[in-house]
């Protein structure tokens, strides 16, 4: 079965190379049947990769340790759920999963746009199959997850216990879907550059692909933060780890691209900038892949040392040279049709946001790669830690949060100072008393300017959005006599894209508030003696003993801690623990978390004191508002769903006309 899967991969490589070459000949000979044959090749390629994936999945489920990858990332005692997730838990398997999704996306593109975008679709398919061919060459040549080993061991090494967490079933696939999804707008941009057809059609066509890619990347980042918070046992959820940064950078430039293409759609401006942004975004996904697969960085997120890491750098250089070479060749046809008419306009607000997003991405890239460059050039090991990133990116993040409010309501083309005062005066003023209330509610000894700046900005953004909705709902109600809920529904329905985006902005505000809460976090080491209460914040903690708890394929040695309020009322029992896995020599930390709407009580089992175990030492955190960051995910989901319901009328009309025209032509050819 392993050989059968490898043969399937080789067949898929042949089909992908066919998809690179044949579209060009189809265009040169004006033979659309050649281009159409690539559609059928994409189906076969996807089926071949599905066969190889099924072989690996079957081996993981049945613990077939004759396959080296299965032995290295699975064991018999692992639950079925984690055997399945180990498919992408290692370097080779994750690359196969990447290729599986890439082939699926290519198949969708080949059939979804067979009647539209006919001028550029051959080169879109050629670009996507080129990416696919590169990945398959790496997989077959250096990272084949179906490779056999000479000696079949009785037991596997097991999946890294840190990855045995429910979030890991969604977090890595979501990141891969986001990374791979950005290859679609990139391929359309390359197809437009090759053919010299760079009107707004490629932007409109790929709008949903970009939204979907952004959403999956956002989901991966949020779930990754939640995994780090619950599994790594350090009390935080973002540490500016190099692999975290690798996923953040394309998210930043992708977000900039989403905002910037709106200017191109509305005003036919920033065409060059949009092509540059999508090239940078795709390039950053390749850099992220290099960082996680080269083994040059130490991170709990990264894979081990691999020979394929340098190949991604060569591929990145090739992509950038070709892409920017094509851009330089076509730069004259990308000139903007309009110019900025005023300093105070939505175009400038979006442009300022773009500059900030790209500046943050550049800062993160510099901070992540500079230690690697310094070590390669001078042999000096450097380490750039979180304080650098926090200090440099914080002001830019605050400016982005401010522009989030301004860019939503400021009109296109130009506006007046009177209009600005009308839209922003009372939200600006209302944010001050609300921030003062928060300052009164929080503990005096935990004063933080950064935290209060975020609170003020968050209140300003929310008040601005509320002001907009209230004004429009009142106007609608007065004109149609609808009730407020009906009027709200009709207002949102009339502009789904605008209010879906507004909801996404609200989710971003929740993430900022989750970050602000960390500025007011309490952290303390407590030694608890059995049955004696100690107070921290608004809680009393009582240690009730240590017990061993079997959990799936591990043993947890847990401290049983009773959580009381200040009046002595029991709130919950928490069991922070040390977990012992048979395949791991060192115990891991399992935290105990009591969640509430306002804050989390977070316990880490540091040590057990004395032979009798009458006392334990815990590291205790009280983290305000941290759960609000996780609430952003369902908000993003709803906002993206609303945005997906919107389709530009001109795109729908054009697609309908083209489909009818080409179907009629095909019927005429068939009759003749």
Shape field: globular
Rg estimate, integer Å: 27 Å
What oligomerization state is this entry in?
single chain
**In whole angstroms, how far apart are the ends?**
48 Å
Compute the number of strand runs. Answer: 10
Number of domains: 4
* Residue runs with pLDDT of under 50 for 5 or more positions: none
Largest sheet: 6 strands, antiparallel
How many helices? The count is 21
Helix content: 55-70%
Mean pLDDT: 85
**How much of the residues is beta strand, in percent?**
5-15%
User: Helix- and strand-based class?
Assistant: alpha+beta
3D structure, described in words:
This protein is an alpha+beta fold. The protein folds into 4 domains: 1-164, no CATH class; 169-411, no CATH class; 412-520 and 630-639, no CATH class; 522-627, Sandwich (Tick-borne Encephalitis virus Glycoprotein, domain 1), CATH 2.60.98. The protein contains 21 helices and 10 strands. The strands form 2 sheets. Strands 2, 3, 4, 5, 6 and 7 form a 6-stranded antiparallel sheet that branches. Helix 6 crosses helix 8 (183-195) and helix 8 (183-195) crosses helix 12 (271-293). The radius of gyration is 27 Å and the shape is globular. The model has no long low-confidence stretch (mean pLDDT 85).
């Amino acid at each position: 079965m392993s050989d059968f899967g490898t043969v399937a991969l080789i067949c898929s490589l042949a089909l992908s190379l066919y998809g690179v070459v044949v579209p060009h000949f189809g265009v040169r000979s004006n033979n659309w049947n050649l281009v159409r044959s690539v559609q059928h090749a994409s189906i076969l390629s996807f089926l071949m990769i599905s066969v190889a994936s099924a072989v690996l999945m079957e081996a993981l489920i049945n613990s077939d340790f004759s396959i080296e990858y299965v032995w290295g990332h699975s064991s018999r005692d692992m639950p079925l759920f984690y055997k399945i997730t180990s498919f992408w838990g290692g370097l080779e398997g994750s690359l196969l999963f990447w290729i599986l999704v890439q082939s699926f996306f290519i198949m969708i593109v080949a059939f979804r746009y067979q009647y539209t975008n006919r001028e550029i679709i051959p080169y879109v398919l050629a670009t996507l199959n080129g990416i696919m061919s590169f990945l398959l060459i790496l997989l077959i040549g250096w990272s084949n997850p179906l490779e056999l080993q000479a000696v079949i061991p009785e037991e596997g090494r097991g999946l890294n216990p840190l990855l045995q967490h429910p979030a890991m079933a969604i977090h890595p696939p979501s990141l891969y879907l986001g990374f791979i999804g950005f290859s679609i707008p990139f391929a359309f941009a390359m197809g437009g550059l090759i053919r010299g057809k760079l009107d707004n059609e490629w932007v409109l066509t790929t709008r949903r692909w970009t939204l979907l890619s952004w959403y999956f990347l956002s989901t991966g980042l949020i779930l990754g933060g939640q995994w780090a918070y619950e599994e790594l046992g350090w009390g935080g959820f973002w540490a500016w780890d190099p692999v975290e940064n690798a996923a953040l950078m394309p998210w930043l430039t992708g977000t900039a691209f989403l905002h910037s293409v709106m200017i191109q759609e509305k005003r036919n401006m920033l065409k060059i900038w949009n092509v540059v942004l999508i090239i940078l975004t795709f390039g950053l996904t390749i850099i992220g892949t290099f960082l996680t697969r080269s083994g040059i960085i130490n991170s709990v997120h990264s894979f081990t040392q691999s020979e394929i890491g340098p190949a991604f750098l060569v591929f990145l250089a090739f992509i950038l040279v070709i892409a920017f070479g094509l851009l330089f060749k076509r730069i004259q046809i990308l000139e903007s049709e309009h110019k900025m008419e005023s300093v105070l306009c939505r175009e400038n607000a979006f442009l300022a946001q773009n500059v900030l997003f790209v500046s943050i991405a550049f800062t993160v890239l510099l901070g992540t790669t500079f230690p690697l460059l310094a070590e390669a050039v001078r042999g000096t090991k450097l380490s750039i830690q979180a304080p650098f990133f926090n200090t440099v990116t914080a002001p830019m993040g605050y400016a982005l949060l401010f522009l989030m409010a301004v860019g939503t309501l400021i009109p296109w083309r130009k506006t007046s100072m009177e209009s600005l005062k009308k839209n922003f005066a009372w939200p600006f003023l209302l944010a001050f008393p609300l921030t003062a209330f928060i300052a009164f509610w929080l503990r005096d000894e935990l004063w933080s300017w950064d935290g209060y700046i975020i609170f003020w900005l968050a209140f300003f953004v929310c008040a601005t959005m509320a002001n907009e909705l209230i004004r429009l709902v009142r106007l609608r109600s007065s004109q149609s006599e609808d009730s407020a809920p009906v009027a709200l529904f009709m207002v949102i329905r009339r502009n789904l894209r605008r209010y879906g985006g507004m909801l996404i902005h609200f989710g971003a505000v929740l993430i900022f508030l989750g970050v602000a809460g960390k500025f007011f976090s309490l952290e303390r080491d407590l030694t608890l003696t059995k049955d004696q209460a100690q107070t921290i914040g608004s809680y009393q903690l009582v240690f009730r003993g240590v017990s061993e708890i079997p959990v799936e394929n591990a043993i947890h040695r847990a401290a049983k801690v009773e959580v009381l309020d200040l009046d002595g009322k029991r709130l919950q029992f928490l069991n922070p623990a040390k977990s012992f896995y048979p395949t791991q020599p060192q115990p891991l930390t399992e935290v105990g978390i009591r969640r509430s709407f306002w804050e989390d009580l977070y316990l880490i089992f540091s040590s057990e004191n004395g032979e009798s175990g009458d006392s334990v030492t815990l590291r205790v955190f009280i983290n305000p508002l941290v759960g609000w960051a996780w609430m952003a995910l369902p908000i993003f989901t709803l906002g993206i769903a609303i945005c997906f319901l919107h389709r530009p009328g001109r795109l729908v009309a054009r697609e309908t006309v083209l489909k009818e025209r080409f179907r009629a032509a095909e019927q005429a050819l068939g009759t003749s």
